[in-house]
Amino acid sequence: MRIITLRPPAFLASLTLLVAAGCTQLPKTVVVGTDADASEGCVVCVEPHAARIGAEVLARGGHAVDAAVATAFALAVTWPEAGNIGGGGFMLVRESSGDAAFVDYREMAPAAATPTMFLDAAGEVDAHHVRLGFRPVGVPGTVAGLWEAHQRYGRLPWSELVDPARRLAEDGIVVDVALAGSIGGAAEELALCPEAAAIFLDATGAALAEGARLVQLDLARTLGLIAQGGRGAFYEGPIAGRIADDAEKRGGVMTRSDLAAYRAVVREPLVGSYRGFSILCGPPPTSGGCVLLQALNILEGFDLAAMGASSADELHLLGEASRRAFLDRARWLGDPDFVTAPVDRLTDKAYAAELRASVDPRRATPSDRLAGDLEGTLPLEGESTTHFSVVDRDGNAVSNTYTLEESWGAKTVAAGTGVVMNNEMHDFNVTPGRSTRTGRVGTAPNTIAPGKRMLSSMCPAIVTRDEDLILVAGSPGGRTIPSTVLRVVTGVIDHGLSARAAVDLPRVHHGLYPDRLSVEGAIDPSTRADLAARGHELRAREAQGDAHVVGPGARVGALVGAADLRRAGAVGAVSVD
Ligand code: DON
Predict the structure, then answer these.
(1) CA–CA distance from 3 to each of 11, 314, 369, 500, 522 (Å)?
(2) What pairs with residue 518 in β-bridges?
């Protein structure tokens, strides 16, 4: 097996902070690296400042949710392409008692949204307005979701969790190689929004380079208001006013009352099982949990361990299982407040056995043969969501994935707020009734309606066995997300791998349409040739997803944090001296 190593972790072992011991007897140190013991608590995410801030909260005795809130606000400053307060996501919480909740803070369509709002006069998708400016902005859910989670689980004061992010925005951070690359990749479109350009580009209009200082004063003010005023400051106060005014000026449909009406929803997690392990994940409006459980149920009938990790036999089956789950995704799934999906049946073992019977272990099944009347897919998505995993010393766990949809969302900053706005409306099926093999899904469950949440693929997941915490996982990557999580989960369960080895396993994805298997660069040529000989059209990609996990360490029963190094990544861990 080959391991992917894309970027040397330059900050490794470079940050060691002494944290005030508070009322505890021993001084606690926060260490930031790429791998760390999780027994005293850790935060695993894409960026080291945010990992450190989250771990400091744990060192002060915070609950995993406190650390998650602090990390999420910090990432809005330090990883602005996806960390956000202008987007939305999902937080799966499992306490050491076994109680679990799924906080749905997905964005909602504004009241004035219509099913065809992104079609031009010729009935084609308006490529600009579906992605850029204020039109594709869904009502943001992040502040409401973090607030809701904190109300339920928080131990430390809210303002103390927001304030570190505010200070980072005010003092500025040094742009590192990953952030410089991210800004550079979006610079042309960020330049279309003067507010965004003023923050992320230099005076000549070029992207801030590595080594430059990124100071975000408007965002610092916004975070200061949220630190003091909580949820209401964002949805009902001056921030809402600024966002709504700017939306009106710039062709959006989101209003002050859309913001005031936004609510996060706490749902029951989806619970499945796989080879004796319990799998907790999310119900609609994300498809991630259904797809993951369906794929696992199909795979349970095959002996992946005997095939060997990353063998052609195994990768073929991972693809075939996902292909089938993605068909049901398109047929059935959407916002549960608007459509009733047969989630119990889709995640049922007997149904998986029916699907399994159609899998040929030696041949790819053409998607057309399975899909019948359903053609199509969504446009390919990038990697620009972000996931983080947290455990605290009591064994409470948080798996959080949140997003602006595309990298840098709508490439739009609401005037005077510093808030990068999402383009999540893009996740609806924007061509109602019209699907194409290479282009889009137009199926009904996920068409636009006022107040509706757009279907997601995000898949925060937590695995337990006999009540013991085994794995906390998730990833960005649009529709590849459940496939990435599936790879990590099967790596740990079927192959008995450590968190590090499971994260490093090469990944594949099949999403029904386009009818092709995407394969990471680390999959060797002979395995690729074997997959192609089974009838898969292969699409090579350098890297899929960015899974920051807590999972098994080398020692039996020990948990470690393992950052995915495909992009950047850091573990902030507490240790007791
Ligand atoms: O909710 C979703 O599934 C997508 N908006 C996630 C997007 C993503 O992971 C990366 N994006 N382009």
Answers:
(1) 20, 17, 35, 10, 7
(2) 509, 539
Nearest to 412, CA basis, from 197, 165, 94, 138? 197
Atom nearest to 406 CA in ligand 1? 12
Helix 64-78 to helix 158-171 angle, to the nearest 10 degrees?
20
- CA–CA gap between residue 237 and residue 55 (Å, rounded): 31
Q: Is the minimum distance from the CB of 383 to ligand 1 under 6 angstroms? A: yes
Residue 403 Cβ inside 6 Å of ligand 1? The answer reads yes
| Average pLDDT for the chain | 92
CA angle 162, 163, 165 (to 5 degrees): 75
Q: Report the chain's C-alpha Rg in angstroms.
A: 22
Residues 109/428, Cβ–Cβ less than 8 Å: yes
Complete DSSP assignment for 422-466: P-GGGGS--STT---SSS----GGGS--TTPBPPB----EEEEET
Q: For residue range 161-184, what is the model confidence (pLDDT) as tens digits?
A: 999 999 999 999 999 999 999 999
Cα separations in angstroms, 220 against 78, 167, 241: 12, 7, 17
**Catalytic residues, which ones?**
385
Distance 105 CA to ligand 1 centre (A): 14
Answer for the pair 88, 401: CB distance below 8 angstroms, yes or no.
no
Q: What is the 8-class DSSP label of residue 254? A: -
pTM for the full predicted model? 0.94
Protein residue closest via CA to atom 6 of ligand 1: 478
Give ∠ CA 167-171-175 in degrees, rounded to 5.
Answer: 115
Ligand 1 mean position to 97 CA, how many Å? 31
Mean pLDDT of 281-290: 98
Cα(360) to centroid of ligand 1, in Å?
31
Indicate if ligand 1 lies below 6 Å from the C-beta of 140. no
423 alpha carbon – ligand 1 mean position (Å): 10
How confident is residue 20, by pLDDT bands cut at 50, 70 and 90?
very low
Ordered structural domains, the chain, with CATH? 10-34+48-266+397-419 (no CATH), 268-382+456-565 (1.10.246.130)
Task: Answer for the pair 394, 53: CB distance below 8 angstroms, yes or no.
Answer: no
Pocket flag, ligand 1, residue 107 (CB < 6 Å): no
Q: Would the CB of 34 count as within 6 Å of ligand 1?
A: no
Residue ID of nearest Cα to ligand 1 atom 1: 456
Q: Is 422 in the pocket of ligand 1 (CB under 6 A)?
A: no
Q: Are the beta carbons of 440 and 424 closer than 8 angstroms?
A: no
Test site for ligand 1: of 481, 541, 548, most ligand atoms within 8 A of the Cβ: 481
CA of 561 to the centre of ligand 1 (A): 24
CA atoms within 13 A on the CB side of 308: 6
Alpha carbons 76 and 54: distance in angstroms, whole number:
13
Mean pLDDT of 523-545: 96
Burial 19-49, CB ≥16 within 10 A → b, else e = beeeeeeeebbbbbbbbbbbbbbbbbbbbbb
457 lines ligand 1 (CB under 6 A): yes
Query: Confidence band (pLDDT; 50, 70, 90) for 433?
Result: confident
- Which tokens sit at 449? 């309606």
For 272-300, b/e burial (b = at least 16 CB within 10 A) is bebeebbbbbbbbbbbbbbbbbbbbbbbb
